[in-house]
Amino acid sequence: MPEKLTATIKAEPFPFPLKRDAIALVVIDMQRDFAEPGGFGASLGNDVSRITKIVPDVKKLIEGFRSAGLPVIHTMECHRPDLSDLPPAKRNRGNPTLKIGDEGPMGRVLIVGEPGTAILPELAPVDDEIVIEKPGKGAFYATPLGDILKSKGIEQLVFAGVTTEVCVQTTMREANDRGYECLLAEEATESYFPEFKAAAIAMMKAQGAIVGWVGSVDDIIEGIE
Ligand code: C5J
To answer: How far is it between the farthest Cα atoms of the chain?
Structure first.
């Protein structure tokens, strides 16, 4: 097997060993339903302004990958209109004012094709960028993500998006267990709860990067350029 290691990216708990030809960005669930008033996140009682604040950093990271000619993959948490991929245990959880599938101000909550389910326009996929529609919190569960990464020869994943301790952390753990080296972009991820973001980051990079590395947007962009 040819050795793909080309450089390192400044990161914690130690430099990330970059394989420049085998890395992709995964942007998790930067959807209107999690970021805008009237959406699912807000209906659960969350302060969604925390999510919109990271949009410029996420955009910067996406543009860094695009100009480096590296793959950008987007995910969307969403369900089929007939709710056949939505377990009752998920639909009934949390006592939101709007349940998944209900009609809300931005269409049916977290249903494929509805306006609120869309990725924020500033971060919208371009050209042939891959969009993974996922019914779970992790992006590997019940999706073609694993096969797509294999077909592209991807071995390393940089993560951005929301929320740090739910869909981002779940996907990073799924990826880590599948053998991917994972690097989280710190300013390009957010939680509705600052203490949960801090705790998630601390547990990912603990014990010698047991789940993965954490780095800054600027250092990641500098590394891949
Ligand atoms: C949640 C997500 N928090 N994308 N989804 O329900 O983290």
So the answer is: 54
100 in Cβ contact with 86 (< 8 Å)? yes
Output the CA 145–ligand 1 centroid distance in Å: 18
Looking at the CA of residue 44, tell me the nearest atom of ligand 1. Answer: 6
Q: Would you say the pTM of this structure is higher than 0.85?
A: yes
Q: How confident is the model at residue 4 (pLDDT cuts 50, 70, 90)?
A: low
Report DSSP state, residue 137.
S
Locate the ligand 1 atom nearest the alpha carbon of residue 167 and give its number: 7
Please give the pLDDT value at position 49.
96
Active site residue 167: yes
Task: Tell me the CA distances in angstroms from 137 to 12, 86, 102, 134, 162, one per residue in order.
Answer: 25, 12, 19, 7, 10
pLDDT at 170: 98
Is cis: bond before 170, omega within 30 of 0?
A: no
Cα torsion through 185, 73, 106, 42, rounded to 10:
-20
In the residue annotation, 99 being an active-site residue is answered as no
Residue 195: C-alpha distances to residues 21, 28, 57, 124, 200 (Å):
35, 20, 20, 29, 9
Q: pLDDT tens digits for 9-55?
A: 999 999 999 999 999 999 999 999 999 998 999 988 999 999 999 99
Record the tokens describing residue 60, joined without a space: 């910067």
86 sits in which H/E element = none
Q: Which of 186, 220, 223 is nearest to 202 (CA)?
A: 186
Query: Do the beta carbons of residue 74 and residue 125 sit within 8 Å?
Result: yes
Asked if 192 and 47 count as a contact pair (C-beta separation under 8 A), the reply is: yes
